[in-house]
Write a structure and sequence with these properties.
This protein is an alpha/beta fold and 232 residues long. The chain has helices spanning 11-28, 47-55, 66-75, 92-98, 111-117, 147-155, 175-192, 207-212, 222-225; strands at 37-41, 60-63, 83-86, 102-108, 125-132, 142-143, 160-166, 198-200, 217-220. α3 links the parallel β2 (60-63) and β3. α4 (92-98) packs parallel to α5. It is globular, with a radius of gyration of 17 Å. 42% of the residues are buried.
Length: 232
């Protein structure tokens, strides 16, 4: 395991530090730490890091680029119990390929992607409707006012299991109020789909705020993986 100046220590030490922070934040919110899943986002890192993480007990890893996720999942197909989460914007034309390796897609943001992920072959993929918490239509996700229609489409799509909602906090505003808005959207979704009670929110810099507002899935990269290599 190699050290990294970001946060100090090696991979195992950073993983333990984040796990401790997650537990502390969950207890502060009156929640069971076991109710929060940490997905380690390995963006730009080699498959060897995924193997290292797996050896340290990590079973949920994420990627936000299809080409990288597809290659890395193939390279690590022998790792027992490893689950891949796709957390970036997904092109409709790549959705069927993503279905082959992704246990969950956290970025359902339009009908074409939902339709492309559907399948009647008896297999299932978990899905999260991504909500845009900003006024910028260029940011990923569907506007809060349009969530209900997309939720209905997911519920009607074979092979796609609605798990809940996902969002990225705005870059230029405090995270906690944004995650509060996401929690309110989640409550609205649960009124229609009671089993869709999960919230994918929180990254390296804001996971404590996300946990305070009910996040069940964190997407943490550099705080665990260290500085990212160049994309190349």
């Amino acid at each position: 395991m190699t050290g990294d100046p970001l946060g100090g220590g090696d991979t195992g030490e950073r993983l333990a530090r984040v796990a401790s922070g997650v537990s502390d934040a969950a207890r502060a919110a009156g929640r069971d730490p076991a109710s929060v899943m940490t997905i380690v986002v390995t963006k730009f890192h080699p498959a060897s890091l995924v193997r290292e993480l797996h050896a340290l007990g990590v079973r949920d890893v994420g990627e936000n680029r299809h080409q990288e996720a597809q290659a890395k999942s193939a390279e690590t197909a022998d790792l027992e119990g490893l689950r891949w989460h796709f957390v970036g914007q997904l092109q409709s034309k790549k959705a069927r390929q993503a279905r082959r390796y992704a246990a969950a897609v956290h970025s359902l943001d339009r009908a074409s992607v939902v339709d492309a992920l559907g399948s009647d072959d008896g297999t299932w993929v978990d899905g999260f409707v991504q909500v845009n918490l900003t006024d910028d239509p260029g940011r990923g996700g569907v506007a809060a006012a349009e969530v209900d229609a997309l939720v209905e489409r997911v519920l009607a799509t074979p092979g796609l299991r609605l798990r809940g909602v996902m969002a990225v906090a705005p870059l230029d505003a405090p995270a906690r109020p944004a995650f509060e808005r996401l929690r309110l959207v989640s409550e609205r979704v649960r009124a229609v789909a009671p089993d869709a009670d999960q919230i994918s929110a929180g990254m390296s810099q804001d996971f404590a705020d996300a946990i305070a507002e009910g996040a069940t899935h964190l997407r943490i990269g550099t705080a665990i993986t260290g500085s990212r290599p160049d994309a190349g």
